[in-house]
Design goal:
Elements lengths: L1 H8 L5 H17 L5 H14 L8 H5 L8
Helix pairs in contact: 2-3
């Protein structure tokens, strides 16, 4: 996950915001007992790699990320 985070950090666009938000949602799911601890890394990795980055986003693009629909 660290390697992915470093790669994402070098990418311009919405991918870093998306990864951060997906991580937060995944940790919330773990704390609520809906997923196992090891699934945090797996899900964040999978969802981030599947995400289509917007390279030159407007603020609306960032605020409009459809995070819950990622599940």
């Amino acid at each position: 996950l660290l390697k992915l985070a470093m790669d994402v950090a070098e990418t311009e666009g919405t991918k870093a915001a998306y990864m951060n938000a997906i991580n937060e949602i995944t940790v919330q799911k773990f704390l609520a007992g809906k997923i196992e601890f090891h699934e945090i890394t797996e899900l964040v990795n999978k969802k981030t790699r599947q995400y289509k980055n917007i390279e030159n986003p407007k603020i609306e693009d960032i605020l409009g990320l459809r995070l819950e629909s990622a599940w």
